[in-house]
From TrEMBL:
SMART domains: S1
Gene name of this polypeptide: nusA
Protein name per Swiss-Prot or TrEMBL: Transcription termination/antitermination protein NusA
InterPro entries: KH_dom-like_a/b (IPR015946), KH_NusA_2nd (IPR058582), KH_sf_prok-type (IPR009019), NA-bd_OB-fold (IPR012340), NusA_N_sf (IPR036555), S1_domain (IPR003029), TF_NusA (IPR010213), TF_NusA_bacterial (IPR030842)
NCBIfam families named in the record: NusA (TIGR01953)
PANTHER family linked to this entry: TRANSCRIPTION TERMINATION FACTOR NUSA, TRANSCRIPTION TERMINATION_ANTITERMINATION PROTEIN NUSA
Family: Belongs to the NusA family.
Occurrences of domain S1 motif (ranges): 144-209
Length: 419
């Protein structure tokens, strides 16, 4: 005797085998989707599914469909889907009478190949949609948090990672630390930057360059941050090179900088390695803008600061031997300080009164320096030769938008005047 599964045909069992172990979808939802898919096909075949009972068991890859019809006298059947003649009913069970309800199991495979194909397509579409929804919701809740993935494929523009459930995670080139190197099969950590969901097709974008990545790493290494005793107020990064972190403690007994750095840097060592030897400066946050800018420019010692809060600009004056420290290698220190404080910082060398008296207006050098170059420098607020000589070379190149050779020529002309 054929079993129930045999009667339904191998193609139907294969359909269930494909979907019963579907990832990311709980059993209740899966049963609901399977039942809905059957009902959609039944409605197309019979015009209505309201008199059908659908029982699904995805764990066994099995299902039952029962059609309920009312017994009517012979010749009075008006709707063959919902009514059955007394004679036909008694073929099923001889003791049926008019007015009773007949429940009869329906063999779905007898509906034909097209109905089965329709069911498979409906199931595939609905379950794919559910998987996408589940994946989107899972990672949407993880935006800003660290996740791990195994390197699966490396391309020029991105690295493809796979999480422990086989989901694809994308790490674009722009979100990789420049000195990062990847090898297939290795585990990589990053934060979830965002989840794109165009046409209900989730694409999880990761980042290792985001300031939030450094924040999360610090939270994992410093218990006081995790416990809420220390707060990370600002983070500025030049990925793989250097970072500045401003921290604040609500407990006077706790030194926030010392707690974050640890004994002999023990707490930041692991983070520095994770970030490809990115140097991490931790400073005390202050709501006093002048003090905060002063701390952000460390290790340089600031002489005085003039603030333009409306335009968020700061003019910082330092002794000659402190200027290079404030600027840092390749202008890195001053850039990070600007990012951290959210102020444009211009650095100037402190000039003595004697030096100021001997100053010369830039316009007097028009016979040696092109006027457009003088105008570009004056647009920065530098009107005299000493002001230009006291300004950092990197600042002149960047803010006056001049070539390095042009700036060096101007500095040479101005310097010669005082020699």
């Amino acid at each position: 005797m054929a079993t129930k599964k045999d009667e339904k045909g191998p193609s139907m069992i294969e359909t269930f085998q494909e979907f019963k172990e579907t990832k990311n979808i709980d059993r209740t939802t899966l049963v609901s989707v399977l039942e809905e898919s059957f009902r959609n096909v039944i409605s197309k075949l019979f015009g209505s599914d309201e008199n059908f009972d659908v029982i699904v068991n995805p764990d066994k890859g099995d299902f039952e469909i029962h059609r309920n019809r009312m017994v009517v006298a012979d010749g009075e059947v008006q709707d063959e889907n919902k009514q059955i003649s007394l004679t036909d009913a008694q073929k099923i069970e001889p003791d049926y009478e008019v007015g009773e309800e007949v429940s009869e199991e329906v063999n779905f495979s007898k509906f034909g190949r097209r109905a089965i194909l329709n069911l498979r397509q409906t199931l595939a579409s609905k379950i794919l949609e559910l998987e996408h929804d589940s994946l989107y919701n899972k990672y949407k809740d993880k935006v800003g948090n660290i996740v791990s993935g195994e390197v699966y494929q490396m391309w020029k523009r991105e690295v493809l990672l796979i999480d422990d459930e086989g989901n694809e995670l994308h790490l674009p080139k722009s979100e990789q630390i420049p000195s990062d190197s990847y090898h297939k099969g290795e585990t990589v950590r990053a934060i979830v930057l965002r989840v794109d969901n165009e046409n209900n097709n989730p694409r999880i974008i990761l980042s290792r360059t985001s300031p939030q990545f450094l924040e999360r790493l610090l939270e994992a290494e410093v218990p006081e941050i995790n416990d809420g005793l220390i707060t990370i107020r600002r983070v500025a990064r030049m990925p793989g090179e250097r970072a500045k972190v401003a921290v604040e403690s609500y407990d006077e007994r706790i030194d926030p900088v010392g707690a974050c750095v640890g004994v002999k840097g023990s707490r930041v060592h692991g983070i520095v390695r994770e970030l490809c030897n990115e140097n991490i400066d931790v400073i005390n946050y202050s709501s006093n803008t002048q003090l905060f800018i002063q701390r952000a420019l460390s290790p340089a010692v600031v002489s005085s600061i003039t603030l333009d809060t409306e335009n968020r600009k700061a003019e910082v004056y330092l002794q000659p031997d402190q200027v290079s420290l404030a600027i840092g290698r390749s202008g890195m220190n001053i850039k990070l300080a600007s990012m951290l404080t959210e102020f444009t910082i211009d650095v100037f060398r402190v000039v003595s009164d004697t030096e100021a008296d001997e100053d010369i207006y830039l316009d007097e050098f028009s016979d040696e320096i092109d006027q457009w170059i003088i105008d570009a420098i004056k647009a920065m607020g530098l009107d005299t030769a000493k002001a230009v000589l006291n300004a950092p070379r990197e600042m002149l190149i960047e803010k006056a938008d001049l070539e390095e050779e042009t700036v060096d020529y101007v500095l040479g002309v101005l310097r010669a005047e005082f020699e």
